[in-house]
Amino acid sequence: MSKESFTQPSEGELEILQILWKIEPATVRQVNELLSANKAVGYTTTLKQMQRMLEKKLISRTDQEGGHFYSCTLPQQQARQNLVDKLAQQLFEGSGTQLAIQALGSGKVSQGELAELEKLLQNLKDQQSHE
């Protein structure tokens, strides 16, 4: 699925995608059990939502012994990037840097995340010095 054909998932669809990225392939029942752990949601609601996601090509279905199994149609990292790019366009005039500054300004950054960011920044500096 290319960036251009990416369909913006709703909040509920994102919850289902998060589950599928962890346990795919999964049945509707498995997804519903995990969704139900955090909020009251009926099986038929989950089924209908997953049917809509199938129509939107956010997920795919395979028929196997034991039922229908669902998987995501794009990798989690690509979906995240698509959502971040859209957010940057909508709120930060396309600036990923401003988006990152806003996110980091929340003060909810662990020491491990700071180390990861420092490593990323150093890699970007190294790449630019070789250009």
Structure in words:
The protein is mainly alpha-helical. The chain is built from six helices and two strands. It has a two-stranded antiparallel sheet with strand order 1-2. A hairpin with a 2-residue loop joins β1 and β2. α2 packs across α3. The longest helix is centred in the C-terminal third of the chain and has 19 residues. The model has no long low-confidence stretch (mean pLDDT 88).
> What's the main sheet like?
2 strands, antiparallel
The main sheet orders its strands as: 1-2
Average pLDDT metric: 88
Order of H and E elements: HHHEEHHH
What is the count of helical runs? Answer: 6
Helix/strand-derived category reads mainly alpha
Shape: elongated
Strand content: 5-15%
Number of strands: 2
Short précis:
With 131 residues, this protein is mostly helical. Helices cover 61% and strands 9% of the residues. Strands 1-2 form a two-stranded antiparallel sheet.
Comma- or semicolon-separated keywords:
single chain, 131 residues, mainly alpha, two-stranded antiparallel ribbon, 6 helices, 9% strand, elongated
Ordered list of secondary-structure elements with their pairings:
Layout (H helix, E strand, L loop, with lengths): L10 H13 L4 H9 L6 H13 L3 E6 L2 E6 L3 H17 L3 H9 L6 H19 L2
Antiparallel strand pairs: 1-2
Helix pairs in contact: 2-3
